[in-house]
Amino acid sequence: MDKLTTHCVIAGGGPAGMMCGLLLARAGVDVWVLEKHKDFLRDFRGDTVHPSTLQIMDELGLLEKFLRLPHQTVTEVSAEIGKESFKVADMSRLPTRAKFIALMPQWDFLDFLAREAARYPNFHLTMEAEVVELLSKGRRIVGVRVKTPEGTGDMLARLVIGADGRNSKVRDKARLKVRDLGAPFDVLWLRLPAAPDDPRQPVGRFVGGNLFVMLYRGDYWQCGLLIPKGGLAELKKEGLSAFLARLRTAAGFARDRVEAIKSFDDVNLLTVKVDRLKRWARPGLLCIGDAAHAMSPVGGVGINLAIQDAVATANLLAPILARRRPKLSELRRVQARREWPTRVVQRVQVIVQNNVLARTIRSQVTPRPPWPLYLLDRWKWLRQWPARFIGIGVRPEHVTSKAAVTPADNAPT
Ligand SMILES: Cc1cc2nc3c(=O)[nH]c(=O)nc-3n(C[C@H](O)[C@H](O)[C@H](O)COP(=O)(O)OP(=O)(O)OC[C@H]3O[C@@H](n4cnc5c(N)ncnc54)[C@H](O)[C@@H]3O)c2cc1C
Predict the structure, then answer these.
(1) d(C-alpha 222, C-alpha 63), whole Å
(2) What is the pLDDT of residue 43?
(3) In this predicted model, what pLDDT tens digit does every residue of 130-143 receive, in sequence order?
(4) Do the strands 123-126 and 31-34 form a parallel or antiparallel pair, or are they unpaired?
(5) CA-based nearest residue to 50, from 369, 304, 340
(6) Ligand 1 mutation pick, 10, 23, 34, 36, max ligand atoms within 8 A of CB
(7) More confidently predicted of 318 and 209
(8) pLDDT tens digits, one per residue of 2-59
(9) Mutate to test the pocket of ligand 1, among 295, 309, 392 (most ligand atoms within 8 A of CB)
(10) CA 99 to each of CA 57, 91, 104, 172: distance values in angstroms, whole numbers, following the listed order
(11) Which of the 8 DSSP states describes residue 326?
């Protein structure tokens, strides 16, 4: 890669980066997405495509095609506390075209966005391209240095978008100040085999001091066990059989399958972070998605927010980017639009993680179900409100950026 010049470079091909790339390309912006991995086949990312994201797909005319990909639909969300089960969210009354969460491995979702974006000649995606440095001219960021297997090169752009996730190099290099909101736990991610007569809906279970989440993936269950921050070393010290005994307590109907975990190599640690930038932009640079605000897994809404940031960015900046460099005041409009929804969701996540989840893990006893759960379980119409929060979020975005390029019909779909 020699020196390349484009309208917009996006660091990171996650949900935020890929959706932003697709929308900008559709609006006529020459856009280059750089993804450091060689494919999207990484596990342990959220697999939820929310009703609000499905709505965006509909607005782009892609919903039917998207739903042809293998997926499961979730219309109700339940929680199990000890021996009691509570229905907590009901998607059937949502004011969206798709009244469900589509559960789909995230690599299928990202592959789909990549295929659709590739139909625009002004969209470019380079895999195995890691942004390692920001290029600046005075105070303005004017491009990125990229490392690929072929070597290192520079790309110059009117705007650099940092969509490189919770450990964003872009925001570090740009020296954007971060406010850490703290996360008292991490997640251990593991797989248990599925059986033909298992239920298919996702399960969230509180048993003893264990919080266990199970996502159905066809022939296996993707499972998450919450542990206190830094607690993996302690678990390893206690040994594998003690860990399996703990899994047996937590895994409910899958308890007889925990022997599938042969060693701690079958268990992956996912570090949870909750933070947000004080300023999402500086001249020539904007951060979105987890790079601007790392989300807790609580509620499984991080992807939703990342996508909404991408839509707002394209709505506000596409018409400018196609013509000229955006001014700092124009970049700040993205933060002005998206910061409030981010704050609201993070506030709820922090309350839940500090007051419910961390206490349960610390005390190692099954918590008493809070009274609102009984109300939600009893009245179906009440369950539409948690469903709105999870499925649509606060201040949903809609595609208002105009399509300026006709996608090529012969491109791979
Ligand atoms: C344990 C756990 C479970 C979760 N479960 C859910 C869930 O079920 N549902 C949900 O909605 N949210 C969930 N979340 C939150 C969700 O994962 C994030 O909020 C969401 O992925 C953010 O999307 P993003 O595009 O901003 O960043 P990411 O998804 O992190 O994507 C960033 C991309 O940038 C790439 N990248 C990184 N650095 C560079 C670089 N220097 N150069 C080029 N590319 C780079 C990465 O490889 C990656 O592909 C979970 C989070 C955790 C920790």
Answers:
(1) 26
(2) 57
(3) 999 999 999 999 99
(4) parallel
(5) 304
(6) 36
(7) 318
(8) 578 999 999 999 999 999 999 999 999 999 999 999 988 765 667 889 999 999 999 9
(9) 295
(10) 13, 5, 16, 39
(11) P
Helix, strand, or coil here: 291? helix
CB 18 within 8 A of CB 33: yes
| Closest-lying ligand 1 atom to the alpha carbon of residue 11 | 43
Write the pLDDT tens digit of every residue in 267-308.
999 888 999 999 999 999 999 999 999 999 888 889 999 999
**Percentage of residues of the chain with pLDDT beyond 70:** 97
Rounded to the nearest 10 degrees, the angle between the axes of helix 51-59 and helix 302-321 is: 30
The CA R_g of the chain, rounded to the nearest whole Å, is 22
Q: 10 Å Cβ neighbour count for 367?
A: 15
Instruction: Report whether 270 contacts 229 (CB < 8 A).
Output: no
Ligand 1 pocket, CB under 6 A: 11-17, 34-37, 45-46, 48, 130-131, 163-166, 169, 187, 270, 272, 289-291, 295, 297, 300-304, 306
> Which residue's structure tokens are 């009354």?
93
Which helix (H) or strand (E) element contains residue 276? strand 275-277
- Going by alpha carbons, the residue nearest to atom 8 of ligand 1 is 46
For 254, residues 6+ apart whose C-beta sits below 8 A from its C-beta are 192, 193, 194, 195, 198, 214, 221, 223
Whether the predicted model's global pTM rises above the 0.70 cut:
yes
- Identify which of 223, 290, 392 to mutate to test ligand 1's pocket (most ligand atoms within 8 A of the CB): 290
For residue 334, pLDDT beyond 90 = yes
